[in-house]
Amino acid sequence: MSGHEPERRSMAGNAGFSLIEVMIVLVIIGVLLLVAVPGYQDGMRKSRRADGMRDLMELVSRQERFYAQNSRYTDNINTAAGLNFRPDEDADDPTVSSEGHYTLSVTECAGFDPDEFDSCYELRAAPLGEQQKDPCGTLTVNSKGQRGHTGSPDNDELRCW
User: What stretch of H or E contains 62?
Assistant: First the structure.
């Protein structure tokens, strides 16, 4: 029986992982995280962008309906006398998009009298919180149907919209 004892000892010494093997696994996991996390965050920003786009398109529809009834556009987003847009009636700020990633606003187009919205408006969705890191910046759409953004000039409208 004493002949089997050396084999048991050698098997017991090889039962675990060495520190080098554990460190290699940790380095591989770290590299994977360095690649995966930024891609995931970019994907999340892109998907949250749909929140602003959806609400802007809803406001465009409401603006056109308002124009058909009143022969002018309005800068009043929230009340019944305006566009009556309240994504969340319990929200502290009703001009925040449905999912809370953008602040919505409407302005007269540049070069027009700001007191009268007779012929042109521009709707804006300005990013909030984590969405401010989105390279598209503020999303815009005007009464002529032109879509744009205020973000990096390297991003064209097709990527942002």
Answer: helix 19-70
